[in-house]
Amino acid sequence: MKFTMYGSGWVGGHYGARLAQAGEDVVFIARGAHARAMREKGLTIRSELGDAVIKPVSVKEDPAQAGVADVIVVAVKLWDSESAAQAIKPMVGPRTTVVSLQNGVDKDEVLARAVGREHVIGGVTHIGAVVAEPGVIAHTGKLQRVTLGELPRGKPSPRVEAIVSALQRAKVEAIASDDLARVTWEKFVFLTSLSGLTALTRKPVGPVREHPATRAMLLDALREAAAVARAEGVPLAEDLPDKQLQMIDGLAPSMTSSMAQDLARQRPLELEWLSGAVVRRGEAKRVPTPVHRAIYAALALHAKG
Asked: Domain containing 130: what range?
C-alpha cells in the first residue's frame, strides 16, 4: 500500500516513519530545512517505544511529483487546510483514500469539497511529539493511537480495515470505529478548551487547573463545546466535561497546548478552527458559547502570528 504523508512534522513524520519501518511504501511531502535534512540524513524517530532511522527517505516538495497514492494522510496545521486540500488533488486517483489526522471538526468537510466525499474517511490521533530538529521527531510518552472510520458513522469498511491493519503491523495502536463523529468531537471538546485556556492565560495546564477562576472557566469551555456537539446530533455523554476535567488533572503540570506555543513564538494560530468553530457552530444551533467567544475575541488579533 502506498502512503503519502502530506505534512511530515510530528504527526505525519512519526506515523510515516513507523509505516516505512514496517515495510510500507511511504512518500513524504515536506519543505525547507526539514525536507533537506530528511534527504541528506534520513528521518529519525526518538521514542520510548523504540528509536528508528528511515534512510533513504522518499521526500517530495511538489505533490504533483509524488504520483497517485493509495492513502493520503493530511497532517498540517488547520490554517493550512484549504491549501492542502487543493494541493493533494494530483495524488488522488479513482481508489485513493484521504484521511486527515488534523485537529478540529471542519477538516473533513474541507477535504470532501476539494477531492470528493467518496474519497474521504475520518481520522483522529492521540500522540505527543515534536520536531526536535530538522529531520528528527521526538515522541513523548508511549501513546500513539489512530482511530479511523467512515463518516459520519457506519460499520468499518474494507478500506478502513486495510489501513488499520497496516498501522497495526507498524505497531501503532489503531482502531476502527463505527462512530467516528463522536470520537472526533470527544477529542475536539478536550482540545479546543485546553488550547483556549492555556493560550489565553499564557500559562501551562498546572496553574490553569489550580486557580478556582480559571478552573471554572475551563470546565465551562468543555461544557459549551459538548453542548454544541449535542445540538449537531452527536451523542456525547452528559458527564463528558467532568470526566475530561479529571483527565486534565492527571496531565503533567508543565504541559501546554500547541496553540499556546504558537502564540509564544508569534506563529499563526489555529484559533479560527478551534474556539472560532465552537462559536460559529454554536450560533448556527443557537447554543450560547460565552467562554469560547471570549477566548476567540481575546486572541483574534494574534491569529495571523
From this structure: 2-178
Per-residue pLDDT in tens (0 to 9) along the chain, 305 residues = 999 999 999 999 999 999 999 999 999 999 999 999 999 999 999 999 999 999 999 999 999 999 999 999 999 999 999 999 999 999 999 999 999 999 999 999 999 999 999 999 999 999 988 899 999 999 988 999 999 999 988 899 999 999 999 999 999 999 999 999 999 999 999 999 999 999 999 999 999 999 999 999 999 999 999 999 999 999 999 999 999 999 999 999 999 999 999 999 999 999 999 999 999 999 999 999 999 999 999 999 999 99
Backbone angles phi, psi at 4, to 5 degrees: -120, 125
Q: 43: which 3 cell numbers?
A: 528521518
Q: What span, in angstroms and rounded, lies between the C-alpha atoms of 263 and 290?
A: 22
Write the CATH number for 41.
Answer: 3.40.50.720
* pTM for this entry: 0.93
What CATH number is attached to the domain comprising 290?
1.10.1040.10
CA torsion, points 230, 259, 18, 254, in degrees to nearest 10? -100
CA 185 to chain centre: 12
